[in-house]
C-alpha cells in the first residue's frame, strides 16, 4: 500500500515537474489564477511586432549618466554610485511597470545612506523626482529609498504599495555622507495582464504592407495590455502624503481594464468605449 502511494505521489511529482518545465520562464502575476490563453491564436510573422516581452521578469537595456546623458553601459553590467555624483538612469527600452528588485553592495558610508529610485515615462523628466501619478498635481511623486547604515550586500525589493505602474526610465542616486555603492543586479517583475502566463499570446493579429502602421497597431495593443491590471493594484484614494500608493481596489475579477498604466490606474467608462473594442481585436485580454 505504502509503495503504491509512493508511486502515485512520484507520478504526480513528475507530472508537476514536466508542467513546471513547460512554463518555466513564464508565469502569471503572483498567485493570480492563470487563464487558458497560453499561445498566440494566429501565429505568423506579425508576432515579431509584439512589444510584450517573452518573460514576466525583465532587466533594463541601457544605462546613462544622469548629468551628461552619455551611455555608461548596456545590460548586464555593474556600476558604482557615489554620494551626489555619478547618478544614472536606466532605460528599459519601452513602457514597463511593477515591482523592482535591486541588489547592491555598499563599500562605504558614514552614518545613514540610501539609494533613491525615481521613475519617469519620458526622458526629459528623468531626475530625483518621479513624474506625476498619484493624483496630487501640486507635487511630483518623488523617490523611494533603499536605506542602509553600514557596508555590506543588500537587496531592495520595492514595497507592493509603491508598485510603479508605468515607466521607461528609472533613475538611481545615492545619498549619505561618503557613501559608495555598486549596483550588482536590477530586475523588474511585470504585473500587467496578470492572468496570462505568456504575455505574447495575442488572440488577434494585424498585418499590412506598411511596417510603420504595423508598429503603430502593436504599440496600441501593448498599451491596452499594460493597462490591463490586477484589480488590487489601482491608484489608492485618498492619496498618500508622500510618494504614491497603488493598493486601490478597483473591482471584482482578476484583471481590470484601466485608463493608464501609470496614471490614473482607474476605470473611466469613457475610455473603455474606445479601449474595449480595440482590445477585443488585438489581444482579446478581456475578462
Ligand atoms: C546632495 O544633493 C542634494 C540634492 O541636490 C542636496 O540637498 C544635498 O545637500 C547634497 N549633499 C551634499 C553632501 O552635497
Ligand atoms: C531612507 O532614506 C531617505 C533618504 O535619505 C530618508 O528620507 C528616509 O527617511 C530614510 N528612511 C528610513 C526608514 O530610514
Ligand atoms: C558582498 O558579497 C560578496 C560575494 O559574496 C563578497 O565578496 C563581499 O565581500 C561582500 N561585500 C561586503 C561589503 O560585505
Radius of gyration from the alpha-carbon trace, in angstroms: 21 Å
Distance between the termini: 45 Å
**Portion in helices:** 10-25%
Small molecules (ligands, ions, cofactors) in the structure: 2-acetamido-2-deoxy-beta-D-glucopyranose
CATH architecture of the largest domain: Sandwich
Strand content: 25-35%
Note the total helix count: 3
The global form is globular
Would you report the number of β strands?
A: 10
- Count of domains: 2
The secondary-structure class comes to: alpha+beta
Low-confidence stretches: 1-25
Instruction: Give the CATH level 1 class of the largest domain.
Output: Mainly Beta
Provide tags for this entry.
287 residues, alpha+beta, Jelly Rolls, 2 domains, 8-stranded antiparallel sheet, 10 strands, 18% helix, globular, binds 2-acetamido-2-deoxy-beta-D-glucopyranose, 6hp_glycosidase-like_sf, signal, Uu.00g126510.m01.CDS01
Amino acid at each position: 500500500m505504502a509503495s503504491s502511494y509512493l508511486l502515485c505521489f512520484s507520478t504526480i511529482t513528475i507530472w508537476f515537474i514536466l508542467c513546471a518545465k513547460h512554463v518555466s520562464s513564464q508565469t502569471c502575476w503572483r498567485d493570480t489564477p492563470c487563464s487558458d490563453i497560453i499561445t498566440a491564436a494566429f501565429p505568423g510573422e506579425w508576432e515579431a511586432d509584439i512589444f510584450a516581452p517573452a518573460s514576466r521578469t525583465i532587466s533594463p537595456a541601457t544605462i546613462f549618466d544622469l548629468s551628461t546623458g552619455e551611455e555608461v553601459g548596456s545590460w548586464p553590467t555593474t556600476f558604482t554610485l557615489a554620494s551626489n555624483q555619478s547618478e544614472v538612469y536606466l532605460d528599459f527600452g519601452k513602457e514597463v511597470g511593477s515591482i523592482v528588485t535591486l541588489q547592491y553592495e555598499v563599500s562605504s558610508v558614514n552614518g545613514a545612506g540610501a539609494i533613491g529610485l525615481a521613475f519617469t515615462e519620458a526622458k526629459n523628466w528623468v531626475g530625483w523626482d518621479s513624474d506625476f501619478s498619484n493624483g496630487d498635481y501640486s507635487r511630483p511623486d518623488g523617490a523611494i529609498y533603499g536605506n542602509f547604515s553600514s557596508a555590506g550586500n543588500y537587496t531592495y525589493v520595492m514595497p507592493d504599495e509603491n508598485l510603479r505602474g508605468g515607466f521607461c526610465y528609472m533613475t538611481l542616486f545615492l545619498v549619505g555622507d561618503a557613501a559608495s555603492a555598486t549596483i550588482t543586479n536590477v530586475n523588474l517583475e511585470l504585473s500587467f495582464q496578470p492572468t496570462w502566463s505568456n504575455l505574447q499570446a495575442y488572440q488577434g493579429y494585424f498585418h499590412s504592407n506598411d511596417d510603420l502602421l504595423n508598429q503603430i497597431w502593436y504599440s496600441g495593443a501593448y498599451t491596452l495590455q499594460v493597462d490591463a491590471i490586477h484589480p488590487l493594484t489601482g491608484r489608492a484614494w485618498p492619496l498618500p502624503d508622500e510618494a504614491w500608493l497603488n493598493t486601490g481596489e478597483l473591482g471584482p475579477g482578476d484583471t481590470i481594464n484601466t485608463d493608464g498604466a501609470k496614471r490614473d490606474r482607474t476605470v473611466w467608462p469613457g475610455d473603455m468605449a474606445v479601449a474595449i473594442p480595440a482590445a477585443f481585436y488585438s489581444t482579446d485580454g478581456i475578462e
